[in-house]
Amino acid sequence: MHNFGDEPEPPPIPSELNSDYTDEPFANCTRCGESLKDFPGGFQISKAWKKGECVFEYALCDHCRTQLMEEFSQESKKRLAQFQDEHVNLESGLTHCSVCGTAKHAGNEAEFVLTGVCEGDRLLHGLMVCGQCGESTQKLLSQHTKDTWRRFREDNFPGPPGDEVFDLNPVSPVKVLV
What we know:
The chain is of the alpha+beta class. Helix content is 26%, strand content 20%.
């Protein structure tokens, strides 16, 4: 677990990052099933909404998130990192799109992704990406990365969200990529 020392303790994970299917905080990694509560290195939660309904959600322990990112093409990782450096405001939090700045409830609430980097019961970093900006990042992904993401969905989710669910790539604990 992180020792926050003289730093203020991060806020608790907000309820909007709880599972919409269980109405409870995520307890286990979607990929490996390990408990997230005490996982060293923390974990990531991502949830996507379309037409005001949560259509896709997952939590990945740091190990599984790192493994999945390693499967992405170098080309995609480079493009996403450059996009983040040039366009993403990491201070927007869960209330405004980190790319365009639009407030979540300013007519954009029908389609968006929330991502939180967490440790224990604390939110270390959170961001929101509206559907329009999320779709624009899809153009940055190589076919190899899109296939990797499709396999992740097929291996971990029995039903379809389909390809229409915009980018939900795992984030780096230092550099947040959506």
